[in-house]
Amino acid sequence: MSADNRLLATVLDCIHGLPAGHVRMLIAALRQATGGPAAARSSVVGALPTPVFRQLASALVDAWASTPDTTSSAVALALESALAVREHERDAEKLDLVATGPSSPHVSIRHTRAVLLELIDRAQKELLLVSYAAYKVPALVEALERARQRSVVVRLILESSADSAGALTHDGADAFKSLRENVEIYVWPLEKRPAASRLHAKVAVADGEVAFVTSANFTGHALDQNLEVGVLVTGGQTPRRLKEHFHALIAGGTLLRQ
Predict the structure, then answer these.
(1) Considering just the CA atoms, what is the radius of gyration of the chain in Å?
(2) Region 116-139: what's the mean pLDDT?
(3) How far apart are CA 172 and CA 253, in angstroms?
(4) CA dihedral 48, 52, 53, 54 (to 10 degrees)
(5) CA 237 to CA 85: how far, in whole Å?
């Protein structure tokens, strides 16, 4: 990685790893700094209140030091620009509550099944679905088949009975056996997890643009009848970061393809 790319990557690490207010503290410290990275290190790193945050600031100064022609004002401007982009993406993010089961005056009911099927039907490139339990979901299977006919790449991350150490009686993959030749199925192998751990997430992501995080497993009762609550996230960084999280677990070998 070139020195310039390292500096840009470290700027992004600060944007993603620090609260916005702390990024602004860094920007202010950089604008007040005199001299180069060595002279500015103490004031820039000391601008942040905790050791964890100071580590990010220190890494930023190290990366800045590898680009001797870059001024402190230029580093501050890079941080300010990246922060503006992040906040724009955050403001573009839309959140909707999804609550299946008994209703109340406070949350209008949007059934889990309907939201999940809508998310699948809008995907054009990639679908990522994660669930602990999965069975008796023919409508979900049909929606995934439609997605495959649109050439959408479908990745399912599911718990198996063996990897659950007997907590599940059915492999999640069995619910999708009619799609087996056309989708990618991944598991978290027992030997790669801490003792008594579960693959317990319930997530669906379409194209890195829409994400549904829910308490509901992919089962008939969970999608239609149980008291379940979730959040549908449209736009912003969250859907992309969720997708990239699971992509990284696959690339790193934590999740293995069946």
Answers:
(1) 23
(2) 96
(3) 20
(4) 60
(5) 11
Q: How far apart are CA 48 and CA 56, in angstroms?
A: 10
Confidence of residue 82 (pLDDT cuts 50, 70, 90): very high
Report how far residue 190's alpha carbon sits from residue 163's, in angstroms, rounded to the nearest whole number. 5
Global pTM reads 0.68
Burial profile 5-36: b = 16 or more Cβ within 10 angstroms, e = fewer: ebbbebbeebbeebeeebbebbbebbeebeee
- Retrieve residue 91's tokens: 């403001």
Which alpha helices (H) appear in 66-111, and where do they start and end?
A: 72-92
Question: How confident is the model at residue 81, as a pLDDT?
Answer: 96
Residue 108, pLDDT score: 65
Which phi-psi region, left, alpha or beta, contains residue 20 (left: φ > 0; alpha: ψ -120 to 50)? alpha
Query: Between vectors from CA 95 to CA 249 and to CA 84, what angle results, nearest 5°?
Result: 80
Residue 35: which H helix or E strand, with range?
none
pLDDT 10s digits, 194-229: 988 999 999 999 999 999 999 999 999 999 889 999
Domains of the chain in sequence order: 3-90 (no CATH), 93-257 (3.30.870.10)
The distance between the two most distant Cα atoms of the chain, rounded to a whole number of Å, is 66
